[in-house]
């Protein structure tokens, strides 16, 4: 059943941050969520993860509301924009701890660490790691188990170019395993080869959405237009 968001409204204090947002991502689908700073992307992901209270609207993960069903939350993997790490623990300890907490096999996370070039550093405390290394660790943790829905908040931020291709491959692998992936970011050019559909947020409202078409050469298009240019047009139009 994937992820279904219907008529979502979120208010933080007196400010309405999300206004009547409706999105859906089927199992195996990667939905790219784009928009500038303050568009509401992070708030949307945090709301789906159950970390922000919604004013009204519906969120369903695998057919269940994560606010009221522990089973639905168990199907979620959420990677925040700022990696949530414990500085005095090693990278390996993070993987082992999360695997134990959720009764998951840690092997896929260690395999992901190899592909990202992180494996040689796993024995070190993450307090001395760069932002990019911490980001890689979060991607490794997302590979634990088989989540039905994966929420990624700018997961490619701070990654070095050699790691970018491996990270994109890991995200595609999560989708191929059946996860509905909501991938938030600001640079569609980085992820256009990965996503199946897109949505653009501006000031908490949807400003455009659609599905990508792939040509025989792999070129992505939307309504016959170059996909990157089309998405960037939606983003730019929101600011004009």
From TrEMBL:
Q: Which domain of life is it from?
A: Bacteria
Which UniProt keywords are present, listed alphabetically?
A: ATP-binding, Nucleotide-binding, Transport
InterPro entries recorded: AAA+_ATPase (IPR003593), ABC_transporter-like_ATP-bd (IPR003439), P-loop_NTPase (IPR027417)
Q: Which SMART domains match?
A: AAA
Domain ABC transporter, by residue range, is 3-228
Which Gene Ontology molecular function entries are recorded, alphabetically? ATP binding; ATP hydrolysis activity
Belongs to which family? Belongs to the ABC transporter superfamily.
Q: What is this protein called?
A: ABC transporter related protein
């Amino acid at each position: 059943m994937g992820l279904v968001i219907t008529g979502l409204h979120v208010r933080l204090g007196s400010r309405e941050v999300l206004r009547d947002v409706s999105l859906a991502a089927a199992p195996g689908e990667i939905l790219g969520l784009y928009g500038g700073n303050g568009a509401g992307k992070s708030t949307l992901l945090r709301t789906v993860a159950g970390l922000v209270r919604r004013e009204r609207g519906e969120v369903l993960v695998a057919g269940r509301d994560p606010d009221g069903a522990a089973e639905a939350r168990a199907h979620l993997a959420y990677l925040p924009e700022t990696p949530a790490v414990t500085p005095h623990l090693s990278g390996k300890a993070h993987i082992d701890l999360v695997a134990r907490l959720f009764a998951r096999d840690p092997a896929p996370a260690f395999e992901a660490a190899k592909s990202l070039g992180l494996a040689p550093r796993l024995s070190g405390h993450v307090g001395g790691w760069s932002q990019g290394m911490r980001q890689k660790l979060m991607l490794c943790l997302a590979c634990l188990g088989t989540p039905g829905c994966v929420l990624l908040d700018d997961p490619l931020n701070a990654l070095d170019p050699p790691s970018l291709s491996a990270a994109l491959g890991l995200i595609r692998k999560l989708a191929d395993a059946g996860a509905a992936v909501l991938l938030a970011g600001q640079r569609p050019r980085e992820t256009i080869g990965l996503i199946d559909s897109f949505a653009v947020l501006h000031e908490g409202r949807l400003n455009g959405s659609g599905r990508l078409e792939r040509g025989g050469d792999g070129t992505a298009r939307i309504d016959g237009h170059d996909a990157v240019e089309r998405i960037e047009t939606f983003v730019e139009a929101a600011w004009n």
